[in-house]
Design a protein that fits this description.
- The chain folds into 2 domains: 5-165 and 303-307, Ribosomal Protein S5, domain 2, CATH 3.30.230; 170-299, Alpha-Beta Plaits.
- Helix 1 (63-75) links the parallel strand 3 (45-49) and strand 4 (81-87).
- Strands 1, 2, 3, 4, 5, 6 and 11 form a 7-stranded mixed beta sheet that branches. A 4-stranded antiparallel beta sheet has the order 8-9-7-10.
- 36% of the residues lie in helices and 25% in strands.
- By secondary structure, it is of the alpha+beta class.
- It has helices at 63-75, 97-112, 123-134, 142-147, 183-188, 196-215, 218-224, 231-234, 241-250, 272-287, and strands spanning 5-15, 24-39, 45-49, 81-87, 150-156, 159-164, 170-177, 256-258, 265-270, 293-299, 306-307.
- The protein is globular, with a radius of gyration of 19 Å.
- Helix 1 runs antiparallel to helix 3.
- Bound molecules: L-homoserine.
- L-homoserine (HSE) is lined by residues 15-16, 21-22, 138, 140-141, 183, 187, 230, 260-261.
Amino acid sequence: MAREEIKIFGPATVSNVGPGFDLLGFALEAPGDEMIIRRNGTDKLVLINKTESKLPLDPEKNVAAVAATSMLHKLGSCEGFDLIFISKIPPGSGVGSSAASCAVAVMGINELMGAPFDIADLVPFAMEGEKVASGSTHADNIAPALLGGITLIRSYDPLDIKHLPYPDDLWCTVVHPRLEILTGESRKLIPQMIPLQTALKQCGNLAGLVAGLTTGDYPLISRSVNDVFAEPYRTTQLPDFDQLKESALEAGSMGTGLSGSGPSVFSLCRGEEMAASVGQVKKEHFSSRGIESWVYVSRISEAGCKII
Ligand code: HSE
């Protein structure tokens, strides 16, 4: 008999990872979204929010419902589902809140329908939801949210996504300050034309980061985590951002930058202990400037969305 209900976890993700604007991302073990998806015997998607976050409940405005609708259209299905949000990554935090919602919705419905799609084939549907959130169909949060690990989007047209190897003791600390940066708005601040010298810097750093991750060369990783495309235009709201990066580096981080469009700030670290102490340094940076923050310390998660 067909399954009626499923509960899915979708991880928070760090995108861009310095020089990989719209191309690179990785999954965290926590935090994440939890959603129950249940057949509802109608032809409608019904959104039920049991979290403390404010979420749009109109299926045309809710990212998870838009992603699910795009998948159901492709299947020619009129089945209805309840999408019950149980826990939610804070929206606007920069760790892939909308991507996690889109990913859990398409993954859950796909499972309930007998897995007509491979997980990798769910990415374009989830991207439709992401478009509602940020006005663009980037996949650098969606890909790791669905597939786990560190993912590189080699190409968008056609979509070509690859997992990158990374050292076993690579950890990440993300500090989420109580500030708001809206991805859609902050994307408008990024210049559409990039001078050749700037492009060269970014290409060198991206290639260096990929090589460093693949070979476990931490000093190379550290030299490469630097974004000259987007970060300089997005950090104006984060007080003394250069100082924050410097303090994290002094505390042992292997590179620090904005997580996605921010305001969260990620640092790559070698081992859990280092990640925890770098997290404290960043938290103190914000608290000494009167800004509350939350710290997440996590290994890079091999798993993306999973049934729980
Ligand atoms: N790559 C996207 C951006 C991620 O930087 O706008 C948004 O979370």
